[in-house]
## 1
Amino acid sequence: MTTHSAPAPGHVTKTPPVTVVKARQSLGSRLASGVSGGVLRVFLLLVGLFWLVPTIGLLLSSLRKPEDMSASGWWKVFSEPSQLTVDSYQKLLENSDITNSLLNTVLITVPATLLVVVIGSLAGYAFAWMEFPGRDWWFLGVVGLLVVPVQVALIPIAELFGKIAIFGSIIGVVLFHVGFGLPFAVFLLRNFFAEIPRELLEAARLDGAGELRLFVRVVMPLGGPAIASLGIFQFLWVWNDMLVALVFSDSGSQPITVALQTQVRQFGNNIDVLAPGAFISMVIPLAVFFAFQRQFVTGVMAGAVK
């Protein structure tokens, strides 16, 4: 039988030095530790600036005269800042086609976003926490609608809208966007609401809260990040859409994307209107995204970490 003698008094157990521990780390771990500081931040900053180059170029082009844009690139303003002017934006405000289309874009995007968020939130809560016959089958049907491409429904829905006299109107464009935005909204919010602890909802019911009050007072505040993410997705999709608007809108209801596409046919004569119009069409979605980027990131990451 082997016995181990106790360490002598005053004996100190030696531990491997830090250098030995570092030497045992893999090459990937050492590289990851090296770039986790300032080098990574500088790299991400450069990537962000590179991503903004088209936007900056469009902004500077919109502040130049047509003859300057025809003669040289937008980077010429750094050596000749006197080229910058706001005359193009003044002409843009005088172009009724562009200004009316910008208003139509707002009238299409805001209702389409709000309706998808509200209806999707209610349906997502119902599929997550309410019992009704065929609930799971109905939800599978909603998930199945996610794979239906927009192009398949253009002609049938155009014929339907023509029969009910809303083809070519803002209402028709809004309804199409709502119909195709709801499946993703219901799928996203149902999965998010299902992660809410059941005990929290049961406690609210014991306090006398009905389903509507429970949804407004408990579920909506907890689902804020997911709802904000959905709102941003829907807003960007509708604002930048051209296919649906090109099919379902007419000259009086066309959004900014269709109006700019129409102006491109006369590019040589109205470049001073196209540049500021395109910049305004780009900068508004960017402003919305950056304004709600914290909620967007929180909503996207929700559920990724258990």
Note: The mean pLDDT is 80.
## 2
Amino acid sequence: MTNEPSPGGRSRRRPRLTRRGRLVLVAGALAVTAAAVLVPLLTPEPEEPHRPPPPPQQKLVIPEGRRATQVYAAIDKALKVAPGTTGKAAATARLKLPPEARGNPEGYLFPATYPYDATSTPAGLLSFMVNTADQRFGSRHIADGISRNGVTLHQAVNIASIVQAEADTADDMGKVARVIHNRLAQGMPLQMDSTINYALGRSTVDTTTADTRLRSPYNTYENQGLPPSPIGNPGEVAMHAAVAPPPGDWLYFVTVKPGDTRFTSSYEEHQRHVAEFNAARAEARATDG
């Protein structure tokens, strides 16, 4: 590349950068580049739209043995809906029930603690309970017991509901279940006061002779076999007792007083136990009076 001559005859040379000047120029270029890189990094990101916090959860406790009507009332109260709302929902909710239940969730509203919040519905809570029962009652232990005893799942739940209503301890539950199996095997009526109480919508240990003549399919004094449906919602202990009762020849039992349930295969001995029960009840009523 040539230089043009200057007016005085001298050629003009372009000034050359010294080594130090070149270093200053490079450093400046790097500073500009770094600033260009940092600008997008320092630019604040757009804020996400505000999301409201989830509604606070509460807990609904369903104890063992509660009847469906009691569970419905508890759900109505918890969700602060009009009485009877959950009962109506049970009739239309698509619950995972065995065909033998015929749409009646009695026995399958598994007793447990259930979380709920402002978004919960009666049908949703009922489904939660029935699905929990399906999981718990579908265990291998229960399935094997059902097969071993030659009963269906619905029959096992039915037996467990009576066991839950009649016995207070795990040991007594197994023996009550054995009495039920023995009576069914011999074609004897179950004669369970708890089934009459269910028909009358009450809970009592005092059953009269007139009660045993009640015209109801739940009167197991008059009708043989199991009642038309479970009479409450049993827990796992009662269900295990129903499908795996201990061996024994017991046909009768009576709770003479709390913690003292007598089991026997002898009707005569049972009558003596009943006499003790009646005496204890009479004494209790006299004391209360």
Note: Residues 19-42 form the longest helix (24 residues).
## 3
Amino acid sequence: MAALGWLTPRRRSATARSVLAGEASAEAARKDVSEQEPQFPVRGDELAAAFFDLDNTVMQGAALFHFGRGLYKRKFFETRDLARFAWQQAWFRLAGVEDPEHMQEARDSALSIVKGHRVSELQSIGEEIYDEYMAERIWPGTRALAEAHLDAGQRVWLVTAAPVEIAQVIARRLGLTGALGTVAESVDGVYTGKLVGEPLHGPAKAEAVRALATAEGLDLSRCAAYSDSHNDIPMLSLVGHPYAINPDAKLRRHARELDWRLRDYRTGRKAAKVGIPAAAGVGAVAGGTAAAIALHRRRR
């Protein structure tokens, strides 16, 4: 039987070095668990919510560009509008600045398109255009982020410079809580061709989020915001959990400096921006429409 002794484990007393090694390993394991990121979003936190920019954050390209394609298809524009819209689009692209005079001219042109139409008509058309042009352009990764907030019992809003009617259609189709967007004036359900206030762009987004948070009793330090554009830094800076999604160069740099989280769902060296420059804001409604018209005419 002695010959089989090698099959039986030998009993050895632990040395000081082995004890030290065991304790260090256990401590490292506990430290790894403690340093993992806390659960986010936090389930059941009723004081938290999430705010998502739309263009190039939730949707590939600009919502206004896709909406313009749909409106042109439905003959909302006449041929004589093309040259005027094309010039305004060219100005935004070449100048790359928000010249107040040109911004006002572009806004007036865009609002003239819907003047006299019923709000219900645009809402109905928006449903159709979503199915035709927008549904297939939703970023799956960003949608998953929004759904994570919803699954945690939190509310989720879109925040966009696009008309609120478009934003509400998209939010409803994605199962989100609602949307903040630019409001066009209407009387008795008919568009007047004027805005209520200014476009929801840049600092205005931050003010809208702040106002909604106050009305809904939210704690912004527990909230999250997501955007691709440096123009939305004021909104991102409001919340405790800012995310840069498919960020432009300025936002990427800013996010890295402040150690914000980044997510990029684009493929290739750089995702092409479809439609209009972010700096143009809602004033580029006409520019996006011009691009849609030009694209449509080239494909005919």
Note: Residues 89 and 287 are 4 Å apart (CA to CA).
## 4
Amino acid sequence: MNQLDALRQWTTVVADTGDFKQLSVSKPQDATTNPSLILKAVQKPEYRPLLDETVKKHAGKPLDEVIDRLLVRFGTEILSIIPGRVSTEVDARLSFDTAATIARGERIVALYKAEGIDTGKRLLIKVASTWEGIEAARALEKKGIHTNLTLLFSFAQAVACGAAGVQLISPFVGRIYDWYKKSAGAKWDEAASAGANDPGVKSVRQIFEYYKQHGIKTEVMGASFRNVGQIQALAGCDLLTISPELLAELAASNEPLEHALDAKAAAKGDVAKVSYDEAGFRFALNEDAMATEKLAEGIRAFAADAVKLEKLMQESGK
């Protein structure tokens, strides 16, 4: 049994890609996308026609709607290949606008429904884990629209998401690792900070154990991996969303894989339950320099890629 097959024993494997033609190789249960992955895909010759066709078909409609239609086009293609759910992201520029995030999420759902997709079972709306985003997700969940809270870097964000009843969270392992490595500079010891000692891995383990101990139903999906060691150290997490390159690396290894996270063992913990109001959440996030910086950086990066995608669409429509 290779490591990818071994991982599937305990964890739902999710592909993190817009390159849906690769999905038949790794055979994931679910798939996640984001503006950066879609931008990367449409710059490849095999996917550019999807952008051009979408722009032509919906000429004259607002640009933000055409972008949503492109995201849904990719999502429906992905859903024709995988058996599970796809995550489609709301424009990152709405990360601090609860009402606009709700409206955009509802529109994406309506577009999927128009394609015949059972959105209650097969779609997750991705939203940034800001206070406004979490409140938008709370409202969407009450409407039966399931959400994936992304750009999650702190325990405070995870606690607030659990309290809001969101379907799933995506803690960003690799970006947490990046911050600590950069912060340490020449003092960084790669070997001592690998595996279970990786700061990104430790963050996900803390959240996983807290959720299981307190019976929080929100699914934990580790994301943004830099190496297979991070994935191996989280074997047993509810879900892990993994790039095609790292999926291939796992599939190529026949080394034994240990069950690292165990929900039953985690449920026996004794960490006190935490809750935040808006002021408490904002202060807790502010106290976490890594999370504050990476959240802001992530929103900026996704917003910049959304602008690039808009420019490609405008050029295509000329």
Note: The beta strands are 12-16, 30-32, 86-89, 123-128, 147-152, 168-171, 219-222, 239-242.
